[in-house]
Amino acid sequence: MTTAKSKTAATPQATWRAIDEAVESNVDPMGVITPMLHSQLAWLMHPQELAEAAAGFSSRMMALNAHSWYRALGLHSADVEKPHPDDVRFSDPVWTESATWDIAKEWYLAVTHQVQDMLYATPGLSGKDRRRAAFWWRKWLNAMAPTNFLWTNPVALRKAAETNGESLIRGLHNFVADLKAGTVRMTDPEDFTVGRNLATTPGKVVFRNRLLEVIHYAPTRAEVYQTPIVIVTPWINKFYILDLNPKKSMVKFLLDQGFDVYVTSWKNPTADMRDVSFDDYLNDGIARIIDVARGISGAPQVHAVGYCIGGAALATYAAWANRHFAAGQVPLASITLFTSLVDYHKPGDIEVFLDEGSFRYLTRAMTQRGFLDGKEMAAAFRLLRSNSLIWHYVVHGYLYGETPPPFDVLYWNMDTTRMPAAMHGWYLREFYLNNNLIKKDALTVAGEPIDLQRIVQPVYAVSAADDHIAPWKQAFRINAFVNGSKRFVLSSSGHILGIVNPVVTPPKREYWVGSAERHDGAESWHERAEHRPGSWWPDWIGWLTPMSGGRRAAPPEATAEHPALAAAPGSYVIE
């Protein structure tokens, strides 16, 4: 006879899910421990695959043992395990020339490479779970590197001996300073001041509301193109990444080419802005700066530019505008997107922070405070590249006693902003978790169903080959959804330096460029794209200029309708 108890007995799968949910909710809200445990259990449940992996590891160990004996006896032996090309932790000659330190390095690399190889091939796990497990194991292995500890870092020991311990005293001072700052500093904040040696291009704040200041820059030419440029910067960072200094400033470059330029400077939200929504950012943000630019310039349309999340928001606005306005009345002449995602199916390593468990945790935290603290977001992004963005500064600052050199990009990176709870929760849910931006009419924004296929304006999209925030192959997916003509650029470098890419001689970087079609794949496009040395900025200007109309007298920085409220860079950026 079947009892009520047996009817309701949980299946093993349901039991595991219940355990996972309990662990995630109470012990591991960000999902760090769970995927690491899953990967171990998965290997234990597949003994044949585990045996094959163990056999491969044995072969690796035999070669490494032979290498270790040769080096211990003073004989030459080529490295069995080599660091990846971008791994500079073991670049000092002592890690190769000294047998002791070479053997330590080789054993660490052997274990690290074996673990990583196995994790990426873990049987019985989904691709996403494998990537999450590999990510967190990689972070732990990076933290355990011999370079991170005084007694296993020969360079640190050598510096301490050469300086009679002075390097360790300086390192202690650096450590205490970082404790006070609440972060591992990448540069000294005292070296920079916004408005003094950052964001110095002249201009005026010509509009201000609860969400943004609109900066209109002073033209550097007597005549400008008829169609102005409006730049929608990401509200998870401050706008001056595009105006660091005169040599790196994209804003100044555009002014010198004869364009009339307007930029968003977003408010750093406080707890009383907890209910500000994504709709508000479109209505009171993007729509407002476009209206202001049209009002001052007298132009019916603008060239709209969006960077990172500003690009995703701009794409959303463009889809909204193409439905909301009558044909011929859409205020967009073209759309340019910098390292922006619209398809979040594979958003890169950032996906390890985003599942239902971590979303619930973040939502609870944001609801309590009214915002997401910018330091938390910055820490997550730094963790994506922990060796170069965390451990490098720990080693050089604490073990070597070095003061981080002045670097404007890194100062900007530490100058974090907050996100309103309602807006950011909606953004994470609808874009990252549900990937609704690419689905026809799945989202209703500012009263209109959103469909990217309604976008008929020309699109110029720029990605970066080493971008760990918006992977270039995923950024390329914009071409599958919009119906205007499309030109795509793949720049060398990463999320920031691929965009902050001024024209210099000799050229420091390179790029690939070409038209794109809806049926293109990233690889097929790359095969036929034209490779060019240097900056892609001149190519962009060549694309914009034919759509910009003739020249006209440069407009005033401010007008009676839009008076000057403050000098650039304004007040919001220094909050």
What would you note in describing this structure?
The protein is of the alpha/beta class. It folds into two domains: 9-148, no CATH class; 203-574, 3-Layer(aba) Sandwich (Rossmann fold). Helix content is 43%, strand content 13%. It contains 20 helices and 17 strands. The strands form four sheets. It has an eleven-stranded mixed beta sheet, sandwiched between helices. α4 packs antiparallel against α6 (99-120), α11 (278-297) packs across α17 (421-433) and α13 (356-369) packs antiparallel against α17. The longest helix has 26 residues, at 47-72. It is globular. The chain starts with a helix and ends in an 8-residue tail after the last strand. The model is unreliable at 1-9 (pLDDT under 50).
Q: In order across it, which strands form the biggest sheet? A: 15-14-13-12-7-6-4-5-2-1-17
How is the main sheet built?
A: 11 strands, mixed
Overall helicity: 40-55%
CATH topology of the largest domain: Rossmann fold
> Helix/strand-derived class?
alpha/beta
Uncertain residue segments:
1-9
Q: What is the radius of gyration?
A: 26 Å
Strand portion = 5-15%
- Distance N terminus to C terminus? 71 Å
Q: Tell me the CATH architecture of the largest domain.
A: 3-Layer(aba) Sandwich
Large-scale geometry: globular
- Number of separate helices: 20
> What's the number of extended β-strand segments?
17
Q: How many domain units?
A: 2
Instruction: Tell me, rounded to a whole number, the average pLDDT.
Output: 92
CATH class of the largest domain: Alpha Beta
The H-level CATH homologous superfamily of the largest domain, spelled out, is Alpha/Beta hydrolase fold, catalytic domain
